[in-house]
């Protein structure tokens, strides 16, 4: 309790007590002028007076004033303050403000903590998992799996590998032995269609993973919030309890005579990450039961550039072309796949990648404009027969897309289109103005059109150089090229000549636009070093790809619209030197291919 003595016997006191566990502040003010007798009201003890006597009017007026003042204690309180000193008033007002703030602080009700339920925990886990993966990325998780009998004896162990796309239904699950061999796979394609694959051969000695039943498909349910809620069969079966560093969501359903039924489940979600990290599923198998125990081993979020289309193709969708008496080998298969792709329209060729791996498997991947074009190319590739594994992952731009969370990105600072310019527009103005005799708005329009054509042609040069590098140095080994039959060599040379011809055409057009000449004269043949070995050809093809990549970067930097800058990102001299290097390497390859084709034709006629 605290008290402040004021003048004229007045006093202000404050006391703090606890009532029902809550703090209560009591403020009281004492003024002798307001004090009354304990036996009755003031009129009971006041002397009687004659209302008509002298001075009775004044007395009556004073009593009225006191009565009026008594009706409002605030008015009396303020009137007393007017007679007091300034420092006394300041202390009193400050103390009152402090008391009011204390009351507001102690009486503010605490925010009620939301009661956690199994449903809210699963929803938070699913939301956190969805937000963690960037658009066009993927989630890669690996879990250990142990199966135990009803008596707790270990039946088998394995690993479950999960890869899930962020934007599409694409999902691949693989069940592997501890040594890494695939036992079964489960795949969901972009349309939601499900495919399952499992090995039917007997397990090898010492491999215990085959003891895990793949027919009941329980292994296909690693820890996942959405999947666990579906396994529970409804929210009415879900229960929640807190465990060390996490939550445990569980369900239990009545046992039935159904074989392979999941009757009980427990999912552990980490508090810090809200990620499912462990799971136990109890399966009823007739009169027997088994427990599947999953534990997280690895968790990885893949950026878009880390995701490969071939990663979503399980074993069941790999077309293993069996070797037979009339097989023509892995080399012939690759050549024929390239030939099928080379016979497609140019826009189809530009949208499809064909890569041969060191293990002789061939991946064909890409996104075509329509589903009809994708189905047509897939059908042509499936008709091939050879001795390698051909993996086909072709999609179309008009495939139905699943709804996904849209991320908003703030771009700053904003750039006005009116201030954009072509960094090297002076090169085009000089050449186009002299050749076409244009000026003003007409010249501006022609400059922008020429710049757009240069950037588009540069992209085609880059693509053609990549294709030439794949055929000339990546898809075939030097020993294979040296040992090719005459027929295969002719096919290989024809395949290599196609991207080189397109590259030569686009380079010539770019050079003509930059120099202002209608045609560009290729480098003299006598100034080009000949290619004499298969290894040298492979090195030159790979160098062409690297130099074309650098040229594409320079052309885009020089002729794509960009904000106003103080200086050009590349000089004309540097650009022309890079263009000359690409033309020289492209001509070396073209001359070599033409020479080899001519020699093969002579040998065939003899």
Based on CA atoms alone, the radius of gyration comes out at 43 Å
Helix count from the secondary structure assignment: 15
Overall geometry comes to: flat
N-to-C CA distance: 123 Å
Number of strands: 17
Structural class: alpha+beta
Characterize the main sheet. 10 strands, antiparallel
Unreliable stretches = 36-71, 200-210, 316-328
Strand order of the largest sheet: 8-7-6-5-4-13-12-11-10-9
Strand content: 15-25%
Average residue-wise pLDDT: 76
Helix content: 40-55%
State the main characteristics:
single chain, 606 residues, alpha+beta, four-stranded mixed β-sheet, 22% strand
In short:
This protein is α+β, with helices and mostly antiparallel strands and about 600 residues long.
How would you describe this protein?
This protein is α+β, with helices and mostly antiparallel strands and 606 residues long. The protein is 41% helix and 22% strand. The protein contains 15 helices and 17 strands. The chain has helices spanning 42-45, 56-70, 73-81, 86-107, 118-132, 225-232, 329-342, 346-351, 371-382, 425-436, 440-474, 478-482, 486-515, 534-559, 572-605, and strands at 2-5, 11-19, 22-30, 138-149, 154-165, 171-176, 182-188, 194-198, 239-243, 246-252, 261-270, 276-285, 288-302, 318-320, 352-356, 362-368, 389-396. α7 packs parallel to α13 (486-515) and α11 packs antiparallel against α14 (534-559). The radius of gyration is 43 Å and the shape is flat.
């Amino acid at each position: 309790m605290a008290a402040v003595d004021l003048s004229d016997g007045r006093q202000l006191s404050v006391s703090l007590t606890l009532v029902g566990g809550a703090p209560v502040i009591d403020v009281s003010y004492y003024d002798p002028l307001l004090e009354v007798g304990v036996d009755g009201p003031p009129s009971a003890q006041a002397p009687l007076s004659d209302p008509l006597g002298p001075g009775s009017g004044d007395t009556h007026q004073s009593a009225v004033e006191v009565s009026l003042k008594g009706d409002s204690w605030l008015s009396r309180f303020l009137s007393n303050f007017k007679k007091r000193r300034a420092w006394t008033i300041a202390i009193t007002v400050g103390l009152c403000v402090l008391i009011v703030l204390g009351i507001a602080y102690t009486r503010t009700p605490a925010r009620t903590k939301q009661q956690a339920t199994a449903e809210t925990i699963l929803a938070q886990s699913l939301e956190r998992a969805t937000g963690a993966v960037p658009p066009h990325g993927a989630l890669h998780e690996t879990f250990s799996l142990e199966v135990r009998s009803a008596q707790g004896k270990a039946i088998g162990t394995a690993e479950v590998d999960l890869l899930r796309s962020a934007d599409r239904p694409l999902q691949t699950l693989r069940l592997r032995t501890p040594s890494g061999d695939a036992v079964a796979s489960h795949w969901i394609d972009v349309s939601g269609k499900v495919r399952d694959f499992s090995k039917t051969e007997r397990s090898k000695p010492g491999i215990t993973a085959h003891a895990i039943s793949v027919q009941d498909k329980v292994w296909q349910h690693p820890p996942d919030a959405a999947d666990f809620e579906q396994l529970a069969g409804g929210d009415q079966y879900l229960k929640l309890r807190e465990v060390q560093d996490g939550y445990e969501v569980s369900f239990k359903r009545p046992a039935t005579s159904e074989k392979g039924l999941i009757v009980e489940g427990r999912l552990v979600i980490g508090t810090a990450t809200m990620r499912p990290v462990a799971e136990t599923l109890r399966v009823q198998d007739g009169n027997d039961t088994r427990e599947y125990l999953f534990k997280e081993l690895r968790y990885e979020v893949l950026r878009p550039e880390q995701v490969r289309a071939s990663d979503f193709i399980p074993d069941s969708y790999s077309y293993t072309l069996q070797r037979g008496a009339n097989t023509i080998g892995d080399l012939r298969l690759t050549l024929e796949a390239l030939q099928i792709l080379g016979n497609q329209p140019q826009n189809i060729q530009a949208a499809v990648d064909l890569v041969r791996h060191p293990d002789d498997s061939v991946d064909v991947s890409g996104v075509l404009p329509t589903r009809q074009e994708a189905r047509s190319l897939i059908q042509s590739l499936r008709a091939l027969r050879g001795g390698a594994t051909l993996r086909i992952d072709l999609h179309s731009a008009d495939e139905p897309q699943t709804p996904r969370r849209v991320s908003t990105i703030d771009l700053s600072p904003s750039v006005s289109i009116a201030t954009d310019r072509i960094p090297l527009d002076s090169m085009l103005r000089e050449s186009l103005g002299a050749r076409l005799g244009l000026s003003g708005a007409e010249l501006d329009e022609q400059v922008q059109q020429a710049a757009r054509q240069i950037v588009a042609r540069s992209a085609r040069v880059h693509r053609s150089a990549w294709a030439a590098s794949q055929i000339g140095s990546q898809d075939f080994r030097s020993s294979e090229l040296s040992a090719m039959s005459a027929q295969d060599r002719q096919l290989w040379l024809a395949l290599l000549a196609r991207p080189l011809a397109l590259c030569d055409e686009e380079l010539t057009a770019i050079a003509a636009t930059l120099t202002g000449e209608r045609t560009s004269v290729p480098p003299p043949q006598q100034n080009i070093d000949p290619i004499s070995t298969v290894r040298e050809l492979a090195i030159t093809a790979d160098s062409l790809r690297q130099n074309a990549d650098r040229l594409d970067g320079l052309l885009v930097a020089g002729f794509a619209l960009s904000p106003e800058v103080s200086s050009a990102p590349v000089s004309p001299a540097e650009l022309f030197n890079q263009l000359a290097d690409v033309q020289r390497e492209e001509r070396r390859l073209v001359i070599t291919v033409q020479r080899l084709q001519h020699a093969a034709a002579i040998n065939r006629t003899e």
